[in-house]
Specification:
By secondary structure, the chain is α/β, with parallel strands linked by helices. The protein is built from four helices and 21 strands. The strands form two sheets. It has a 19-stranded parallel beta sheet.
């Protein structure tokens, strides 16, 4: 009987020991992975097989926004599994912090504004990374291991010294935003044209001379920024970017826009400032979504009449060209808010202003205007009017209809009088008429209770008139 009890006790002890080791094994698995049963084909025995599990949940942008941002490695290492966002910006880092390797769940990493000249291959060891910011460092290259970041949706490596882009960067299936501005890139990376969901591409301020035809493959592209490169032309394939909304080409040497831009049916912003354009193509009429057109500092001599079909236009800026006449079709742009044509050769504004009932800002300074049209009074929404540095001898009385006008700049003309109707401009805050030939001001200006700045210097006021005006506008007048 005793021997039987001893035997049972040994069995119980062995069973307890087995349970203990099973429990320990399960605890280990909870930390490192999960277990499954599998049969060995050679021995037929059942064995435990460890199955890897993801390092952490992949969070969407809303969930990531709620996560805590860690601002030091020391702080992050206290609870490494909880670190989803790490910002080490402005830490004077000269090398990539190796301790980051312990933060396997990290999904947003900010290493901007440091002094790193090299990014190690280990950057590819963070499979959950969705956003990577490397701006304002001294990087001369990006490692090919970036292609391992298959969830990366945002990459910013602007303001470095990168000369070329690794071909592997074209293997990032989730990349939507790529900023590479202010580097030393000398060729448009063909591989970027393979990015299937790329929406924003910023290559401003590099040294790129040409754009490849493969650009047309970027069917999801919404914003393309190529300012301050060495471009002389755009490929016809740009017309295939039917979802493109913003196109920035400032500071290149482009002489003409291809007629294929007619395919940019979603384009809202076209900025071609400081190029060598002599005309805008008539195909511009197909850019029916266009809201903003900027073409300053080119060699335009006119605007195409077809521009009058772009009824969604809210801003036109064509300063410092050689435009001598505006097309009458401009009056069709009923949604236009801002029109700036300073520094051209305009002689008249006839047949242009009627219909621009929503225009708020009009700048036609530094032209050759000798008179303003009577339909100036139709601009019921006008708040700022700049007619400085022309050859105007008078201002039409209809200006008194501009009830919302706040700023009137008329310096540097040949004005001898101002109309009494200016006394109706009850919202006028700034009036500059210096550098004219005025000998008097209308008394009605004293009715303008909102007027805060009145500049009348460099006019031939007689002494008696100067005394009268000084008494009339004691707190405003600057006549020195």
């Amino acid at each position: 009987m005793v021997n039987c009890l001893i035997s049972h006790g040994r069995v119980l002890s062995v069973m307890m020991m087995c349970l203990f080791w099973c429990y320990a094994l399960l605890v280990s698995v909870c930390v490192q992975g999960t277990l499954a049963f599998a049969q060995d084909k050679t021995s037929g025995q059942i064995k435990f097989v460890q199955i890897a599990v993801p390092q952490g949940a992949i969070l969407d942008s809303a969930a990531l926004a709620k996560q805590k941002t860690y601002f030091s490695i020391k702080e992050a290492l206290k609870e490494p599994t909880k670190v989803y966002k790490l910002s080490l910006s402005f830490r004077k880092l000269k090398t990539f912090p190796v301790e980051i390797a312990q933060l396997r769940n990290i999904q947003i990493l900010d290493l901007s504004n440091n002094e790193m000249s090299f990014l190690p291959p280990q950057i590819g060891n963070f499979p959950n990374l969705q956003r990577l910011d490397l701006t304002h460092n001294y990087l001369t290259a990006l490692p090919p291991q970036l292609e391992n970041l298959q969830l990366l949706g945002y990459l910013n490596a602007s303001h470095n010294k990168i000369t070329a882009i690794p071909i592997q960067l074209g293997n990032l299936p989730q990349l939507q935003t790529l900023h590479l501005m202010s580097n030393q890139i000398t060729a448009f990376p063909l591989e970027l044209c393979n990015l299937p969901v790329l929406r924003t591409l910023d290559l401003n301020n590099n040294r790129i001379p040409t754009i490849p035809a493969q650009l047309g493959k970027l069917q999801e592209l919404r914003s393309l920024a190529l300012n301050y490169n060495y471009l002389t032309a755009l490929p016809p394939s740009i017309g295939r970017l039917t979802k493109l909304e913003q196109l920035f080409l400032v500071g290149n040497k482009i002489t003409a826009l291809p007629p294929e831009i007619s395919g940019l049916e979603s384009l809202r912003v076209l900025d071609v400032v400081n190029n060598r354009l002599t005309v805008l193509p008539q195909e511009i009429k197909y850019l029916t979504a266009l809201e903003r057109l900027e073409a300053n500092v080119n060699k335009l001599k006119t605007l195409p009449p077809e521009i009058g079909t772009l009824t969604n236009l809210q801003m036109i800026v064509v300063s410092f060209n050689q435009i001598s006449k505006l097309p009458a079709e401009l009056h069709n742009l009923s949604n236009l808010r801002t029109f700036v044509a300073t520094g051209n050769q305009l002689i008249t504004l006839d047949s242009v202003l009627t219909g621009l009932t929503n225009l708020q800002n009009l700048d036609v300074s530094s032209n050759k205007l000798k008179a303003l049209p009577e339909d100036l009074g139709d601009l019921k929404s006008l708040q700022t009017l700049n007619i400085s540095d022309n050859q105007l001898q008078s201002i039409v009385p209809e200006i008194g209809k501009l009830k919302q006008l706040q700023i009137l700049l008329a310096s540097g003309n040949k004005l001898t009088t101002l109309p009494h109707e200016m006394g109706f401009l009850m919202d006028l805050r700034t009036l500059l008429v210096n550098g004219n030939q005025l000998t008097t001001l209308p008394d009605e200006l004293a009715n303008l209770e909102q007027l805060r700045s009145l500049e009348v210097t460099s006019n031939p006021f007689p002494p008696a008139e100067m005394q009268r005006l000084a008494a009339k506008f004691p707190n405003l007048l600057n006549m020195e």
